[in-house]
Amino acid sequence: MPRRSAALDRATPGAIAVAALRILDEEGPGALSFRALAERLDVSHATVQRRCADLAGLLDLCTEHLAAQLPDVPAGTGWAEATELRFTALYRLLTAHPGLLVLRGGRPWLGRQLLARLVEPALADSVAAGMTPAEAMTAYRRMYLLTLGSAAFVDHRDPAGATAASRAALAALDPERFPVLSGGLADVLPPLTDHEVYYGALRQLIEANRPAA
User: Fold this and answer.
1) How far apart are the first and last CA of the chain?
2) Coiled-coil region(s) at which residues (predicted)?
3) 3 CB-contact burial (10 Å; exposed 0-12 / middle 13-18 / buried 19+)
4) Across all residues in the chain, what is the average pLDDT?
5) pLDDT of residue 123
6) Are 41 and 16 in contact (CB under 8 A)?
7) Spatial CA neighbour of 200 closest among 208, 110, 39
8) How many whole angstroms separate alpha carbon 153 and alpha carbon 66?
9) In b/e form, how buried is each residue of 135-145, taking b as 16+ CB within 10 angstroms?
10) How many Cβ atoms are within 10 Å of 63's Cβ, its own excluded?
11) CA dihedral 26, 30, 35, 37 (to 10 degrees)
12) Band of the pLDDT at 37, cuts 50, 70, 90?
């Protein structure tokens, strides 16, 4: 019987995902590499590469690890409540790991965990509530794009830094060309990092897409 590699035992997909997310959260997207992961896990560069092949595979491991944390919505939960629970949970996961969003960019997220814990149940609930599959997918996509864009727009782990950077950029504008932006900083800046902007927009989308009785 072939002996299992101790290095592969340490470099499980879950361990790789956790270590990669820690690097992203602590040091930023520029610090993530197979070599950095190998050092964290005390394995060789080749061992990490055997598990995920390339950067795309590594990012897929990370997103699948996060998707596994999405909630199971109890059967019988109303469509609007279930939809809000699912997408707010996704939003919280994404805003907790901005470095992952930077590296993933526009790559589709089609892992089994996300499909099983978010996409399929969301679509199934919508169809059961009276939507056609096309209507269900359209509603899902609207809410997914809102969630992804809201999470990626600003680093919500550092709201003070995001506000300071925006303040500096807006303060440098010509007041004659940008009277609202330059003259209303006290009113313009707070919504940039206010999570309630997302939650309110999500509820509006849910209401606009609510299936007919």
Assistant:
1) 61
2) none
3) exposed
4) 90
5) 97
6) yes
7) 208
8) 20
9) ebbebbeebbe
10) 24
11) 30
12) very high
The pLDDT assigned to 106 comes to: 74
Residue 176 tokens read as 């004659």
CA dihedral for 173, 179, 180, 186, sign (positive or negative): positive
> What is the C-alpha to C-alpha distance for residues 133 and 126, in angstroms, rounded to an integer?
8
Which of the four pLDDT bands, split at 50, 70 and 90, describes residue 132?
very high
CA dist., res. 97 & res. 104, Å (int): 11
Give me 132's structure tokens. Answer: 């056609």
**CA angle (66 as vertex; 63, 69 as ends), nearest 5:** 150
Average pLDDT estimate for 15-42: 93
Rounded to whole angstroms, the Cα distance separating 109 from 190 reads 31
pLDDT at 6 (0 to 100): 62
- Dump the DSSP string for 157-189: T-HHHHHHHHHHHHHTS-TTT-HHHHH-HHHHS
